[in-house]
Amino acid sequence: MGEELLSCRQYEKLIPMYLNKTLSDEETIALIDHVKKCPSCREELTIQHMVAVGLNNLDEIIDLNVDSELDKRRRQTVLSLYKKDVTERMHLGVFFVGLSTFFLALLLIIL
Ligand SMILES: [Zn+2]
After folding, report:
1. Which positions ≥6 away from 14 have C-beta within 8 Å?
2. Stated pTM of the model
C-alpha cells in the first residue's frame, strides 16, 4: 500500500463507519494509520468517538484513551486480516493438493 491513498476529507467520511464498525479491515487499518499521524483527522475521530460513546468528560478522554483504543482496534483488525489470509491460503493449499493428485492420477492412467 502506498502513502496517503486518500485525502483527509475522504478519511473524515470514513470515521463514522469506523466507529460503527462497518469499514472493511483494510480501510480500518488505513484510517487508523492516517489518524495516528494526522492531527486534524485525529481530532475529528476523537470528537466523533466521544459523541458516539456519549461521554461528557472531554478533557479526560482525549489523550488518555484514543491511542490505546486505536492500537487495540488496529491489532484486532490486523489479526482478523491475518486469519482471513491464512484461511485463504489453506483453501488454496487444498486446491493445489487436489490438482496435483488429479494430474498424478492422469499421468498414471496415460502411462
Ligand atoms: Zn488527515
Report:
1. 6, 23, 27, 31
2. 0.63
